[in-house]
Task: structure prediction
Amino acid sequence: MPPESPVETVVRTMVLWFPDWPVVAARSIHGLPPAASVAVIDRGIVIACSAEARQEGVRRGLRVREAQLRSPALTVHPHDPETDARAFDPVIAAIEQVIPGVQLIRPGLCAVRARGAARYYGGEEQAATAVLDRLLHEGHPPAVVGIADGRYTAEQAAMQALLGDTEGQAIAIVPPGASPAFLAALPIEAVDAPELAPLLRRLGARTLGDFAALDASDVRARFGEEGAAAHERAAGLDRRPVIPRLPPRDFDSGIDFEPPLDRVDQIAFALRAVAERCAGGLTSAGLVCTGIRVTVTSDRGERSEREWNHPRHFTPAEIVDRVRWQLQGSGGVEGGLESPIARVVISPTRVDAISHHEEGLWGRSPDERIHHGLSRIQSMLGHEAVLTAVPGGGRLLAERRVLVPWGDAPPPRERLAADRPWPGSLPEPAPATVYDPPLAATVLDDGESSVDVDRRGRLSAELAWISIDELQPRRRRRVTAWAGPWPLRQRWWDPARARRADRFQVLDDDGEGWLLLLEQHRWRVEAHYD
Amino acid sequence: MFENSCVAVLLGSRSSALAERSEVREELQARIRQMQSTRLPERSLPLLDELRPLLPEGLRAGATYSVTGSTSLALALLAAPSREGAWCGMLGLPHLGTEAAAGLGIELDRLVLVPDAGARWLGVAAAMTEVLGLVVAAPSRVTPAEASRLAARLRQRESTLIVLGPWPQADAVLRATASDWSGLGRGHGHLMSRRLRVETVSRGGRPRSRVITLPTRGTDAAASPAATEPPLRLAPDPTATPAAHAS
Result:
């Protein structure tokens, strides 16, 4: 039996291309101005720019400085692949309503099989128009459509359509079987392996047609598997099938309150069913969620959004707790809400297979029990009431103590910088009681006048008496030993966090050690070595 | 198996058979006593070597201790159990220096802080002792009945409560009565080590007074070479050197 003719294994494909998608996504998600020149950069290189910027000479691959030179008003935005994907999701959903079975190639570029759609809409052009109309109707950015044999040819057709048309909407159709002829005229820079293009041009292949005319076995021998695939595509034989994505299930659960509710307990009560539904839907899909995003909308349209993570996974009661904490904020259990709540949406942000979270045969691990107990305290006192500590970096003792609510992820280690040397921090041992904010104190010398340090760090007199009114009013402590001033000068370049203070260690006649801080002629107690 | 042992008994001399029988009898009686005992065997928690003179019988699981006069002493009591994997909690101590706790060898990963329980002190303390092995708590106003309920709960869960202040039914009271630091002069030096006179009153025992050197680091850390270096070595920057102007 003879092998199938190669043309038949090539799928008739429709490609939808949204030019400059990173720019479109950045504009829609980060609210960049719609008609300004914008460039999206990744590690100092422009990877996408708006049409306005392109008119001023900004191109892909330029360095940021060069791009800013060409277009001084350029707004530069760092590339965020997640934003691109998030902004593209509704577009795919809109396309799926017209033609099912969309393959996402990358954000901004997707492919569908053209045959079924062409039969249904009565022609390829009609099908493409239907998609574009739908996108226009839903207010999505303009796209160009390329229809050809194979994905690569369709992509090339779409790009040609963009170059040939200035009205925004464009459809380019390469008739069946005409792909090799269409591709043959394109310059070699369009080849599917960009790193080969300069070499091929030097070798004398100036168009894809020249490249396609080479012998397949020679190309494979010279350029390897990747070159062979590019060669095949240049000849119009792109055998990659269109693999439609499975539309992800929507696990978001929300509830609208009509009339809006202004009591936390009412909202929590109504949410119980929603949380059950949300968790139930995940369970039936064999998933558990370890992170949720709770979006609360008040009747005045204010939105509060917060992500909550869970060290294990959320149960319905815990979801309700998180919403309650978010609504209460720092107001405590009895605090009322500022404005009535009209809508609450719970969206799972991180899910995991349920099999990873199955309880062991012999019940829960001890840590599970601890988590349970601490969550109970959190539901009594609030999320921020149960804390764990991580070592922080800094010179002041309050900076070196970073408290994280139970269940939240601690800040990244690099930001804490706890293992840096921090010259000027206190020598060991650390005091067991740290006052944050420090307590006011009075420090006197033997002549009953306040002790101070001048600009050059000289002490006016020896320390003789201290009194700390906030701890024990009217009690004067005799200073038996002291050391200092230890200067603390930091971050003079940052007015908000700059400190210029002097530290003293003081031992009183009870044998109690104190750490004093002299800042702007005012004495304060930073810590107690008790 | 039984046959074998019977054969062994028959083959052995008469005296050894008798000894073996009495051994078996004693073992069985011991097991009966153990099963009949009404008191649970008391588990004691590890203690840092420096603190052993204060509590020769060790820190008992399920007991309540009252520590007055020194937060560091209470933290030092937690250090050894925490290093062996116990979870510790701090209730009502908003000013706790966690760096000091970590320096003593308390694992911060297993330390839970509830800085302010407000009016629900007792409920929170009960919930914390339910899951955590050791809890250090600032005292609160409790009635003796509530205190004994909490004590019963502690015994049942085998978790230890250390109250930083007076407590009506403490199993032992540790009172720091005098303290003395070394390393600090008049205008030079820095606080290095602390000696503490601690008066211990166990329930039904005579008061004992001991002088201990308060550990400043966990023993493991002290053994490592990095910790034995003088603490002032990390000070290359003259504008930010503690004690550089002191001597």
User: Anything to note?
Assistant: The first helix of chain A runs from residue 6 to 9. Chain A has 16 helices and 21 strands. Chain A touches chain B through 60 residues (CB under 8 Å).
